[in-house]
Amino acid sequence: MLRRLIQAKKNDKYVVIVGCSLSGNKLADDIKAMSEEIRIIFADNDVAKQQNGNGGYRVIGVNEIKGIDYECCIIASVRFFLELSEQLRELGVVEKDIYYTKEILQKKDMWLGKRFPRKQLVFVVDLAEHCNLNCQNCDHFSPLADEKYADIGVFENDMQRMAELFCDEMYSISEIYLEGGEPLLNKNAVEFIKIVGKKLPKTQICIFTNGLLIPKQEQYFWDICREYHVRMVVTKYPINFDYDKAKEIVVNNGVEFQFAEDGNVVKTSLHKPLDLRGSQDKYISYMECYMGNGLCNMLKNGKLYPCTVVPNIDVFNRYFKQNVQVCEKDYIDIYKAESAEEIMEFLTNPIPACRYCQPQNWTAGIEWKTTTFNIREWAE
Ligand code: SF4
Ligand code: SF4
User: How much distance in Å is there from the Cα of 185 to the middle of ligand 1?
Assistant: First the structure.
C-alpha cells in the first residue's frame, strides 16, 4: 500500500478511505503524518456523513468513487467491509486498487467465515438447566439455575421440525450436542437420544458431560448409546474424580469416547463479563465472538439462538435481578422459518443481544474454581 500512497502523491491523485470510522480516521492521520500533500477523500453510503463531512475531510457517496481521479481505495469499515468490497467491485473498481486497513486484514479470514452461511448446522440442546459441578463463569449460567429439565414433548416436536427443514441435499445437521447443565442429571436422557436417532438418523449425537455420572449409568443407557452411535464428549475438570476409569466404562460399553479438550491439559475457565448497559457495538461483538455462526448454536423451545448465552440469560436475570433483554430478533423461530437456508442465513448476522457482549475483554486461562455466586463472574 505504501507504494500506492507514494504514487498518489506523485500523480496528485486521491486516496479514497471507504467508510467513516475510527480506524478510517486513524488511517487518515497516519497518511497525513507521512505527507501532508497526499489528497484524502472519504466515501460512505451514509447520506448524513456525506453532508457533514468527516473530521474536516470531504465525504462522497461510495457510488461516486468512479467519478473521481483516485489512486486506490482503502476499506476502513469493520462493520461493512464485505458489502463495501462487493460494492466497489460492482462499480468496476479493479481488485488491485482495493486495500483494507490493518485491523480488517488481520481478521478478514475469520470475519469472512462468519458472514457466509454454513452448509452444516451444529446445535446444542440443554437436557438439564442445573448442574452437579458448579463452575465459576459457566456460560449456561447453570450454577444459578433451579432444577429444571427439557420438556420431551417439545423436544420431539422440535426435532421433527428440524428434520423437515433440513431434508434437502444442500443443508444438513451434522451434530447435535445434548448438554446442560449436566445432561446426565436428566434421567430420561436415553429417550432424548432415541428421538434424535429416529428423527435425524444421519446426525451425530454427542453427549457433552462433565463425566461425574458416567459410573452411575445402567446397562440400558449404554445399549441405547451404542445403538444410536452416540459420542460421549467429556470435559476433564481438575477435581478428585477418576476420568481414566470413566473413559474405560464408556469404551468397554462399545461407545465412542472423546475428551472435550486434550485430556492432558488442565481445564481452565473463560471469563466473559457482560456489559449490562448493552452499550457494545453488536457487529464487533459478533465478529469477535467464537460462538456466532459456529458450533454453539442452541435450540430451546422451538427457537434457535446463535449461542448458549442468550437462551439462558433468564437464569442470570432472575438470580441477580437484572434486566438483560432478549427480543424476537435474537433467535429464529423454527416453526416460522421456511427453509434451512433461512436459518443458516440468520446465523450469519449479529443479534441485538450481542450489544451486551464484549469478546475483546474476555479472559481465557483462569484457574478453574467452583462459583462464589458473585455477579462479577458473569458481568462487569
Ligand atoms: S460442568 Fe459445565 S455446565 Fe456444569 S457448571 Fe461447569 S461449565 Fe457449567
Ligand atoms: S450474544 Fe452475540 S456476541 Fe454474545 S455470545 Fe451470543 S453470539 Fe456471541
Answer: 12
Q: Which atom of ligand 2 is nearest to the CA of 288?
A: 3
**For 79-108, b where at least 16 C-beta lie within 10 A, e where not — what string?**
bbbbebbebbeeeebeeeebbbbebbeebe
Q: Which residue ranges have their beta carbon within 6 Å of ligand 2?
A: 285-286, 289, 291-292, 306-307, 309-310, 351, 353-354, 357
Ligand with an atom nearest the CA of residue 131: 1
Q: Give, for ligand 1, the residue of 129, 135, 208, 370 to mutate: max count of ligand atoms closer than 8 Å to Cβ.
A: 135
Q: Where are the alpha helices (DSSP H) in 12-150?
A: 22-34, 47-52, 81-91, 102-115
Helix (H) or strand (E) holding 10: helix 2-11
Express each pLDDT in 282-298 by its tens digit.
988 998 898 988 889 99
In this structure, the answer to whether residues 80 and 135 fall within a common structural domain is no
Residue 197: is the preceding peptide bond cis (ω within 30°)? no
Q: In this predicted model, what pLDDT tens digit does every residue of 91-112 receive, in sequence order?
A: 999 999 999 998 888 877 777 7
Domain that holds residue 91: 2-108
Distance from residue 119's CA to the centre of ligand 2 (Å):
21
- What letter represents residue 354's amino acid? C
Q: Say yes or no: 234 and 274 in one domain.
A: yes
pTM: 0.82
Shared domain check, 319 and 266: yes
The CATH number linked to 128 is: 3.20.20.70
**Cα distances (Å, whole numbers) of residue 214 to 18, 51, 321:** 56, 65, 35
One domain for residues 45 and 166: no
* C-alpha–C-alpha distance, residues 112 and 116, integer Å: 7
The pLDDT of residue 40 is 97
Distance (Å) from CA 135 to ligand 1 centroid? 5
**346 membership: H or E segment, kind and range:** helix 340-346
Residues 92 and 158 in one domain: no
Do 103 and 139 lie in a common domain? no
pLDDT of residue 13 exceeding 90: yes
What integer is the mean pLDDT of 114-135? 94
Q: What is the CATH number of the domain that holds 97?
A: 3.40.50.720
Percent of the chain beyond pLDDT 70?
100
Burial class (CB in 10 A: 0-12, 13-18, 19+), 307: buried
